[in-house]
Design brief:
Number of helices: 11
Shape: globular
Distance between the termini: 36 Å
Order of helices and strands: HEHEHEHEHHEHEHEHEHH
Strand content: 5-15%
Structural class: alpha/beta
Number of strands: 8
Strand order of the largest sheet: 1-2-3-4-5-6-7-8
Largest sheet: 8 strands, parallel, barrel
C-alpha cells in the first residue's frame, strides 16, 4: 500500500485564482491560503501578478499566470510580451494556451512556432512553461499532435484545459498525454479536480500538478486521512474517472 502525506498533495497544487469576478481582497485571501497550506504555486490573472508576488515574498509558494488565456488566439508577439511582463513582475511559471483554432485547422507549424516563441523567452529566464491544450475541443489525434509539438518546443508541462471550456480533465486524457510526452515533461490536470479522491487519481495516472480552487477543503481532508493512515493511491481501471465527469455523464 502506497501511503502518502498531505504535503504530497499540496506539492501538486497550483491554487487557482483565475475567476474573472474575484476582487483584490479575494486574491489576497487566496494567496494567504496557498501560503498556509504550502501549495506549489498560485495561478493568478495577469493583472494580479505583482500583488501575488508581494504577498508571497519570502514564502516557498511560487507565482504563475496565464498567457493567451483562454482561447490561445492572441498574436504570437502579444503572447511573448505577456510572458515577458509576467516574468518581470515575478512569475516563475507560466501557463500558455496554444492556438486552438489553428490546431483544429491542421496548421501545426503555426502552433509550433507560436509556442516556441513563448517557451524560448521563458526559458531564457529559467521560467517553466505549461502548455494548455484545451482538450474539450480536440480529438485524440489532435491531442497527440499537440503533445508532440510541446515536446519539440521544449515545454515543461502539458496541461489538459483552462477550466473554462465545456469540459476539463479526464483520466483518459491524462493517460494519453503521459503516454505521448517524454519522461522529462510533466502533465497537469485542470478543470474538474474538485475532491481529494480526484487529486489522488491524478497522481495515480502520472500527473504531477493540478489546478485547484478548493485547496483548503481538499488539504484538510488529506491531513485527516494522513493521520488515520488512509491517504493512499487508488487502483485504476478502464472505468475510473473523476467525480465531476461521472456526474456530468449521469445528468445526460
Amino acid at each position: 500500500m502506497n501511503t502518502l502525506k498531505a504535503q504530497d498533495i499540496a506539492d501538486m497544487i497550483d491554487h487557482s485564482l483565475l475567476n474573472p469576478a474575484f476582487t483584490v481582497e479575494e486574491i489576497r485571501r487566496g494567496c494567504e491560503i496557498a501560503k498556509e497550506y504550502q501549495c506549489v504555486t498560485v495561478c493568478v490573472r495577469p493583472c494580479d501578478v505583482e500583488l501575488a508576488a508581494e504577498i508571497l515574498k519570502g514564502s516557498k509558494v511560487r507565482v504563475t499566470t496565464v498567457i493567451g488565456f483562454p482561447h490561445g488566439s492572441n498574436l504570437t508577439d502579444v503572447k511573448v510580451y505577456e510572458a515577458k511582463r509576467a516574468i518581470e513582475q515575478g512569475c516563475v511559471e507560466i501557463d500558455v494556451v496554444l492556438n486552438i483554432g489553428r490546431l483544429l485547422s491542421g496548421e501545426y507549424d503555426y502552433v509550433e512556432k507560436d509556442l516556441k516563441a513563448v517557451v524560448d523567452v521563458a526559458h531564457e529566464k529559467n521560467v517553466l512553461v505549461k502548455v494548455i491544450l484545451e482538450n474539450a475541443y480536440l480529438n485524440d489525434e489532435q491531442k497527440i499532435a499537440a503533445c508532440e509539438i510541446c515536446a519539440r518546443v521544449g515545454a515543461d508541462f502539458t496541461k489538459t484545459s483552462t477550466g473554462y471550456a465545456p469540459g476539463g480533465a479526464t483520466i483518459h486524457d491524462l493517460k494519453l498525454m503521459r503516454a505521448h510526452t517524454p519522461d522529462s515533461m510533466q502533465v497537469k490536470a485542470a478543470g474538474g479536480v474538485r475532491k481529494l479522491d480526484d487529486a489522488l487519481l491524478v497522481k495515480a495516472v502520472g500527473g504531477t500538478r493540478f489546478g485547484c480552487t478548493r485547496t483548503a477543503t481538499m488539504l484538510d481532508e488529506a491531513r485527516a486521512r494522513e493521520a488515520a493512515g488512509t491517504l493512499t493511491l487508488p487502483g485504476i481501471t478502464e472505468d475510473t474517472e473523476f467525480e465531476s465527469v461521472l456526474a456530468a455523464r449521469a445528468a445526460k
